[in-house]
Amino acid sequence: MPLPTDPKQLELSKDLLNALHSAFGIHPGSRANHAHGLLLTGTFTPTATAASLSSAPHFNQPTTPLIVRFSSSTGLPQISDTDPNSAPFGMAMRFVLGEHKHTDIVTHSTSLFPVRTGAEFLEMLGALGGADAGGYLAGHPKVREFVGGEKKAPRSFANAMMWSPNAVRFVGGKEAGERGVFGRYQVLPTEGVESLTAEELKGKEGGYLYKEVGERVKAGPVRYMLAAQLAEEGDVTDDATVYWPKERKVVELGEISVEKVVEDEKENLKEQKKIIFDPVPRVQGIEPSADPLPDIRAAVYLLSGRERRSAVVE
User: Fold this and answer.
1) What long-range pairs does 245-248 form, CB within 8 A, spacing at least 24?
2) Which DSSP helix (H) or strand (E) runs through 170?
3) For each successive 10 residues of the chain (314 residues), what is the average pLDDT?
């Protein structure tokens, strides 16, 4: 997971990290965004369809160990689950392929994304914190849709659907071949999607989601289906703000079984401080699209990760 070699991209990554710190403050040992979270472990079991699309190892071996992190938006480590700003929630997954070998998927509880490039994201952060945020929103409908959209609180992480905004190209499978097919990941909860009403949310504790999932996995795994919406000829694959028609085919890639919280709390926080998820696949059989966002996101994640790893936290 290298930093950009282009000096301008590296400078942009640093500017984005500083903008997040300006928005949420600096909290040593925590992420600049999605600071509040919980780390769990589990297992991925692929479908035959996954192998037909891609030669990726986790799509072709019987099972793969998983590390999963649920998280809340903002860089505030103590944000309440009932705070509207905690949404969209996140679910990052690491497929452990061997010692120091892995590939990651980073998803969020919304199918929307507000901007196409890192520079536009930096502009957005500055504008939303400025005096003319309303004027900026008026001229940027995708950002307005993302910021102003209804933020439903899930009943449980076991009832939250997740999306990855950036397309990848599946290659090497018998069906997709080397030409490949583009797709966007979806994470479908086996128990179905359920949200709390406003009244139900009022009665919830600030940490209800994390407490509930911790108790739930003691009784048995929380299961999801990893799926992909597949692009067709002419669909835009390099812009996270352009959504494909709902009629596009969605295929099942495998079962995600979330089985255990990384215990205890101190150890969980220690491991969260260390792990740096990567939105670029970097694995045989799955290639990034020409979307410019994953590379800049990876750079910001790496800079933030290095920063928090070096932080001294009492």
Assistant:
1) none
2) strand 168-170
3) 95 98 97 98 98 97 98 98 96 96 97 97 96 96 92 95 98 86 98 96 96 98 98 97 97 98 92 97 98 98 97 80
Residues 57 and 87: beta-carbon distance below 8 Å: no
Report d(CA 11, CA 302) in Å as an integer. Answer: 13
pTM for the model stands at 0.97
Alpha-carbon Rg for the chain, nearest whole angstrom, is 19
- How far apart are the C-alpha atoms of 125 and 184, rounded to whole Å? 25
* Inter-residue long-range contacts of 82-85, CB under 8 Å, 24+ positions, other chains counted: 82/153, 82/201, 82/202, 82/204, 82/205, 82/206, 82/208, 83/206, 84/151
Tell whether omega for the bond before 264 is within 30 degrees of 0, i.e. cis: yes
What pLDDT is attached to residue 314? 65
Give CA–CA dist 65/97, Å, rounded.
Answer: 8
Place of tokens 């959209």: 149
Token pair for 114: 């507000």
User: In Å, how far are 157, 209, 265 from 215, measured between CA atoms?
Assistant: 12, 10, 14
Question: Tokens 């992190």 appear where?
Answer: 69
148: which residues sit within 8 A by CB, 6+ positions away? 137
Please give the Cα distance from 66 to 102 (Å, whole number): 10
Q: How many residues does the chain have?
A: 314
